[in-house]
Amino acid sequence: MARLSFPVGPQHPALKEPENLRFSVDGELVVEADIRIGYVHRSIERTCSERNYVQDLYLCERVCGICSNAHTLCYCMAVEQIAEVEIPERAQYIRMLMHEFERIHSHLLWLGVAGHEIGFDTLFMYVWRDREVMQDILETVSGSRGHYGMTILGGVRYDITPEMEEKIREGIEYLRERTEYYAKIATTETTFIKRTENVGGITGPLALDLGAVGPVLRASGVDYDVRRRFPYLKYDQVEFEVRMSEMADVLGRTLVRVHEIIDACNICEQVLDMMSEGEIQTRFPRRVPEGEAVARIEAQRGELIYYVRSDGTDVPERLKIRTPTLANLPAAQEMLVGGYVADIPITFASIDPCFSCTDRMVVLDDVSTSETTTMTWSELLELSRDR
Amino acid sequence: MRVIELTAAEVVQRIQEDYEGELTEANARSEAEAWIGVPAADVQSIARFIVDTWHPVFLSTITGNDRGEEIDVIYHFVLDAVGLNLRASVSKSVDEIDTITEDVPAAILYEREINDMFGLTINGHPDPRRLVLPEDWPEGDYPLRRTDSGDEEEEEENG
Amino acid sequence: MQVLTPLFHVLVFPGFIFLVVFGLFASWVDRKLIAKFQNRVGPPLLQPFADFIKLLSKEDIVPEHSDRPMFAITPLIALAGVIASIVYIPTWSAHALHAFEVDLIVVMYLLTLPAFALFLGGWYSTNPFATLGSTRVLTQLIGYEVPFLLACLAPALAAGSWSISDVAIAQHDGLWLITAAPLSFIVALIALIGKLERVPFDIPQAKTEIVTGPEVEYSGRRLAVWKLTFLTEAIVGGALISALFLGGPHFWGIPYESMGPWLSGFVGMIVLSLKILAIVFFLALAQAALARIRIEQMVQWCLLWLGIPALLNLGLVVFITHL
Prior knowledge:
Largest sheet of chain B: 5 strands, mixed
CATH superfamily of chain B: NADH:ubiquinone oxidoreductase Nqo5 subunit
Radius of gyration of chain B: 17 Å
Distance between the termini of chain A: 49 Å
Helix content of chain B: 25-40%
Oligomer: heterotrimer
CATH architecture of chain B: 2-Layer Sandwich
Strand content of chain B: 25-35%
CATH class of chain B: Alpha Beta
Helix content of chain A: 40-55%
Number of helices of chain B: 4
Structural class of chain B: alpha/beta
Mean pLDDT of chain A: 84
Strand order of the largest sheet of chain A: 1-2-3
Strand content of chain A: 5-15%
Radius of gyration of chain A: 21 Å
Number of helices of chain A: 15
Number of strands of chain A: 10
Number of strands of chain B: 7
Largest sheet of chain A: 3 strands, antiparallel
CATH topology of chain A: Cytochrome-c3 Hydrogenase, chain B
């Protein structure tokens, strides 16, 4: 049979964001895969070097809707490192809590999407309903379900009250129980296993060479968790296991994520037990002294790294973001080739792709003159106000 | 859990002792963070040295930074539990750097991004297409490259 | 009157209107059940009707590079095939509207028409997703059609007739043929899921992979016809399985003989409808509990786990009837 070339995206039901994957298939087998990114490029890095440190905080939070807190956390860690500001202990614990809450909600979201990609919508419905528990907790703590705005330069915005603590403990208990149930489903449900076992495989050394991060890397048996390798906040004081799997396939990634949810629940409880009363903010200077810093954290999708260089003014000279999805793309390409067409959505979803993170420019085609025009920020603002 | 226990100071020391090329900077800022600088022409040899010495090596990303006369290219490696940041400054009059993808395949996307954003030619890159910029983006317009005069306003208009 | 009666049968009952209304109602039951299984509220009763009417009023687009006549006619052929087959299946009494000696084979043939029509419609719409989906339609056909045929032969052989009505009548003494061919019954039910392209066998449509496959270029009225084809095929398939295995309109303790023709017809229809809804319940349960499998897994699994039990049961029936 002749080779058929077909696109997945920029608009496709399996992708939640616009991105283009081109496949060359022979029957049901994928022969070639190419990933084209850049559809939602928003010039965030460039914009960051035109705004002051406080404004950048909000900008970084909007790199991604799902891992918004991870971005602010990483940004604050980098900037605080240059400014040599030590944040209060209680603020560190609250940051840890938010970090783990976000991991729980993001992994639950992923599990639901994975179910949907393989036509198992019941799992999707159940998981997303349970995820609401975490969303409620996040809303109670930060006042928002999406962009929490909790992490600020010099600490956190809100304190956790005893009432909140009670609600968190209740919710965590419930979620742990439910997640254990999902772990059981993932290991016993025949059709689920049929669709995930030996699908999208990649060996550990290859994944490491290609720079894969997070659950993708760990599911291939590589022990790389930033929380353990480069302990930040108070991660050297809590007990948790770096979850790994030797399966190196989609099922392995599922199990790693599901177990990480359970771990995150445990970490949250430990943190709540350890938390002491105290300040939650310190004063942060407007101007940051000259210097540079690299901050790494283990976001839910994998290692997130920020590089910030300051020239002594209130505006960073350079701010570089590398999101986990970008790092996982070469590995994803490797996984897709040689697989079945039917496995494209689940294999690609198994890296938990987030293109909003990966891309960051605005180009509009002027249809009347068919000229490409590049717009400045102010022109874009004007245009959006006109419409 | 760690296979080998390394500290940043040891990494810096090892490079200073065993690496034969020239180093423009070498210091350990903390136990887990080392900074090394090399001339831009030497990136391939230092990358090979790092990979050979501390295999397996993980590359987190490559940062580009326009410093006016030259463009800093910073490779962020992870060796065991040490973050090794390797800086190579490329003069704008040269405007090109060798690829390290032979030794570090993970660099493939990051080098394309550097090429997109700063207009640095990556010599020997296996797949030198654009990464994030659209196909119809004007040639010679690089979003993160400052113009020779360093005039921010002019840059703004270019995007 | 002589002209009007057949017309009434084809257009109203048990033909077009009955099938459409009951099909839409059954799809509401189906959606509501799945919603309940999935911890959701589900649609209101008239939602499928509203969806259907909305689709009819939508713009109907024919892709530029497609083969226009083939693209336009295939959904109609599919629907016609399904509706035509109802006249050979008992709906209100054990006697179908028309019955002759080998009508089982004719119905089997008519019920494969939607799959072939879907293949052609998808193939001639020249969309890569549709092309991929069309090849999957044919591949999947091999998987379910052979076991389905083998499964339906068992009751026919047990009753000693190739006419669906005769098979239904043979069960009137109270012994449903599910007792003689339990494996065949299960095989037929599972194969029906494949015929209807539902989870876990919704491989040719697979929304998250190939964007509904062959149907991807269809819109408006023609898409509505495709939707209708599969809704009515569920009813016809359910009626066929009820007639072959579950005694058709028969149920213990209902004295059809003592009732007038109208009342017995009405009660018979209600009984059959309930049996069809029971089959819809099974379909909904399968959809809620399972994930979509891959095409090569499906064909392999079906030929092994449906084909062999169906053959075993068929052999058993032959052995017993010739004893």
